[in-house]
C-alpha cells in the first residue's frame, strides 16, 4: 500500500508538471500570434504612406522586425522543441509509473491469495493434528488396558508374586518369559513321562 501511494504521488507530480508545461506552451503560442498581429498592424500602417516613404520605412523596419521576429521565432521554436521533448519524457514516466502501480497491485493480490492458501493449509494441518492427538489418546488407553490385562494374567499364576511397584515393560516381558519357560519345561516333562 505504501509503494502504491508513493507511485501515485510521483504520478500526480509528473502530471502536474506536464500540465504546467502544456500551459506554458500555449502561452508561447499566444505570444507568437500576438507578434504576428503586431506585424500585421505595421504592415497596415505602411499601406497608408506614400510609395517612396513606404519603401524607405519598409526597408528599415522590415530589416529590424525581421531580425527581431526571426530571433523570437527561433527562441520559441527551440523552447517548444525542448518542451515537446520534456512532455514526451514526462508522458513516458507517467506511463511507467502507471504500469508499476498495476504490477504492485497484482503482486499484492498474489500475496493475499498465497496467504489465504497458506492459512487454509495451516487450518488443515491443525485439524489433522487434533485428529491424530485424539487417535493417539485412544490408542494409549487401549494399550494401557491391554498392558493391565497382561500384568493381571501374568501375576495371577499360582506361585507368582505381586509386583512391588510400577512395572517397566522389560520387567513385564521377563515375568511373561519366565512363565512361558516354566510351562514349556512342564509340558516337556509330561511328554517324557508319556502323559497326554
Automatic annotation (TrEMBL):
The keyword Aminoacyl-tRNA synthetase does not apply. Residues 4-45 form a coiled coil. Keywords: Coiled coil. It comes from the Eukaryota. This is CCD27 protein. It comes from Pomatorhinus ruficollis.
Amino acid at each position: 500500500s505504501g509503494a502504491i501511494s508513493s507511485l501515485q504521488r510521483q504520478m500526480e507530480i509528473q502530471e502536474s508538471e506536464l500540465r504546467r508545461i502544456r500551459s506554458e506552451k500555449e502561452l508561447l503560442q499566444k505570444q507568437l500570434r500576438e507578434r504576428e498581429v503586431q506585424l500585421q498592424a505595421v504592415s497596415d500602417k505602411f499601406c497608408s504612406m506614400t510609395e517612396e516613404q513606404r519603401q524607405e520605412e519598409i526597408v528599415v523596419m522590415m530589416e529590424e522586425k525581421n531580425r527581431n521576429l526571426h530571433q523570437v521565432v527561433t527562441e520559441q521554436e527551440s523552447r517548444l522543441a525542448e518542451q515537446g521533448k520534456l512532455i514526451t519524457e514526462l508522458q513516458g514516466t507517467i506511463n511507467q509509473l502507471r504500469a508499476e502501480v498495476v504490477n504492485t497491485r497484482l503482486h499484492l493480490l498474489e500475496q493475499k491469495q498465497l496467504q489465504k492458501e497458506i492459512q487454509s493449509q495451516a487450518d488443515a494441518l491443525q485439524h489433522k493434528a487434533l485428529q491424530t492427538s485424539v487417535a493417539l489418546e485412544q490408542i494409549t488407553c487401549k494399550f494401557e488396558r491391554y498392558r493391565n490385562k497382561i500384568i493381571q494374567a501374568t501375576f495371577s499364576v499360582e506361585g507368582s508374586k505381586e509386583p512391588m511397584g510400577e512395572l517397566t515393560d522389560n520387567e513385564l516381558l521377563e515375568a511373561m518369559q519366565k512363565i512361558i519357560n516354566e510351562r514349556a519345561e512342564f509340558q516337556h516333562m509330561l511328554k517324557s513321562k508319556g502323559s497326554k
